[in-house]
User: Which sequence fits this backbone?
């Protein structure tokens, strides 16, 4: 079961004043009603802040229970703005796969997948740790955070 | 069909191509205006007769393309529309133009498109910006998105790479009968399979061309249409549907919004898939043709692969599809939708020479935009079908 978050579990603020200010605003969302979704850092920024802390979070609608990814202001299931950040299990299944045939001198081929997360949402990803030809539709994968690039992002290992 | 239906209320009286293949030294605007001039000339009109302008240009041109093209032409239209749903968008301009004409908002609508992407950059010039939740995985835009959909179709229905290749081979056989087609010459299933792999399961021969090209259409009321030099072609049905923008948000990768747009367009036209004489589909990739044949009701879901492999869509087959050679072998300047319409109109007028479908009276032109995102179906017919 995904663990629900409260304000105290949000990523610790960095020393920067601006950042702290926006984070405080975000915490206030939990108790404020309809205004809350429309103040503080937007969902893309909050998602990225979690990733920078080493956490992969998705959203869940408090009204209809649907899990939502990518991050949004309104629930794609019911239109509500009562989206909260939860920790997904990280488990998923490869739904579709393509091997991009990059030239060898540029790093060689790599895989691009669509993964159905256990909680429901589908996301794009890459499966590491096995040969690209071995990445198959239906195989189980586990989410991880790839920090090798400029900004962290979610990738997968074969489960 | 309702009393308020736009069925048959507007007609195409001009249709022209320009800069097909390569147009070195010409801007996208030049190509669009050449096509516009020719489409109007064919209708016995000039730019000064136009009071409504619809159109798009590639992503490296002004997004305010309706204003720009109108200014270049020196006209002040009463009605403009630059709705952008990707390459499908032209098939919604026809619907909007028909509605505007029916309501008396305008009399003579010009629909334009031009792109010099091949001569200018040598690659696709897209209007789409990288999506932050897909960009880290480096999909080739848009090929990998379509490839992911193809992988799913292969997984669920057993569709094979050979069946995908059959789409490219059929398109080439039609192109070989079209003097303006950019890619002509022999092409076998093995040629497609053995070509350079791009994003599996697609080789470069499963992917559309990167060409220059433009087209223009002129639409007027059905009442006026009889007085023009060319045999009028009527818009009998039109409908649009959208499911997503990015491939990760497409619910079912094996069913496109063409199912929805097709059902509504056929209902408006009051005809069935089995009534259709010629079909022009937006074949950016070989999987498109298979998906759209299924979704529009020309074969059952999952049977598109065997259907195309049977030779059904090749010249001489039971369903003529992409008779100009399609985006795979005729022309693809980035937004192919216009070319489905021009070929459908020319087939219904009987102007297609060697590749002419005998006595063609009803045609489907179907546009795709984004990554299987926007689907827009038009059904066109001759005066006999009114």
Assistant:
């Amino acid at each position: 079961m995904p663990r629900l978050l409260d304000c105290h579990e949000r990523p610790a603020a960095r020393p920067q004043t601006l950042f702290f200010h926006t984070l405080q605003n975000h915490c206030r969302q939990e108790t404020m009603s309809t205004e809350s979704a429309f103040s503080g850092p937007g969902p893309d920024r909050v998602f990225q802040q979690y990733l920078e802390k080493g956490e992969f979070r998705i959203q869940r609608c408090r009204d209809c229970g649907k899990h939502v990814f990518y991050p949004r202001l309104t629930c794609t299931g019911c239109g509500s703005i009562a989206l909260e950040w939860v920790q997904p299990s990280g488990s998923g299944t490869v739904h579709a796969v393509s091997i991009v045939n990059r030239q060898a001198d540029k790093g060689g081929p790599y895989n691009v997948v669509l993964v159905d997360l256990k909680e429901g949402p589908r996301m794009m990803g890459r499966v590491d740790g096995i040969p690209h030809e071995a990445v198959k539709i239906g195989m189980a994968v586990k989410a991880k955070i790839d920090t090798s690039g400029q900004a962290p992002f979610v990738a997968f290992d074969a489960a | 069909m309702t009393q308020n239906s736009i069925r048959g209320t507007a007609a195409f009286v001009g249709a022209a191509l320009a800069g097909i293949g390569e147009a070195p030294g010409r801007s996208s605007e030049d190509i669009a205006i050449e096509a516009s001039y020719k489409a109007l000339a064919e209708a016995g009109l000039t730019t000064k007769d136009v009071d409504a302008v619809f159109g798009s240009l590639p992503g490296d041109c002004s997004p305010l393309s309706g204003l720009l093209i109108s200014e270049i032409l020196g006209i002040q239209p009463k009605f403009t529309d630059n709705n952008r749903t990707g390459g499908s968008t032209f098939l919604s301009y026809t619907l909007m133009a028909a509605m505007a004409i029916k309501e008396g908002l305008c009399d003579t609508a010009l629909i334009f498109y031009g792109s010099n992407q091949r001569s200018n950059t040598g690659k696709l010039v897209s209007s789409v910006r990288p999506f932050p939740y897909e960009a880290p995985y480096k999909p080739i835009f848009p090929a990998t998105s379509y490839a992911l959909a193809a992988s799913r179709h292969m997984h669920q229905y057993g569709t094979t790479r050979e069946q995908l290749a059959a789409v490219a081979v059929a398109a080439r056989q039609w192109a070989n009968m079209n003097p303006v087609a950019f890619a002509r010459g022999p092409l076998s299933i093995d040629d497609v399979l053995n070509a350079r792999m791009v994003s599996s399961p697609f080789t470069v021969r499963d992917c559309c061309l990167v060409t220059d090209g433009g087209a223009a259409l002129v639409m007027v009321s059905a009442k006026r249409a009889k007085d023009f030099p060319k045999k009028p072609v009527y818009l009998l049905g039109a409908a649009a549907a959208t499911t997503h923008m990015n491939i990760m948000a497409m619910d079912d990768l094996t069913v496109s919004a063409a199912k929805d747009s097709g059902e509504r367009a056929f209902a408006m036209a009051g005809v069935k898939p089995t009534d259709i004489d010629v079909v022009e589909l937006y074949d950016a990739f070989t999987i498109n043709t298979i998906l759209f044949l299924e979704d529009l009701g020309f074969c059952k879901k999952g049977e598109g692969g065997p259907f195309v492999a049977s030779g059904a869509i090749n010249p001489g087959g039971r369903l003529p599809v992409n008779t100009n050679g399609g985006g795979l072998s005729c022309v693809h300047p980035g937004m192919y939708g216009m070319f489905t319409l021009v070929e459908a109109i020319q087939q219904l007028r009987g102007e297609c020479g060697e590749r002419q479908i005998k006595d063609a009276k009803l045609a489907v032109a179907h546009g795709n935009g984004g990554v299987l995102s926007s689907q827009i179906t038009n059904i066109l017919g001759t005066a006999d079908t009114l």
User: Anything to note?
Assistant: Chain B has a mean pLDDT of 97. The two ends of chain B are 13 Å apart (CA to CA). Residues 10-123+209-385 of chain B form a domain with the Peroxisomal Thiolase; Chain A, domain 1 fold (CATH 3.40.47.10).
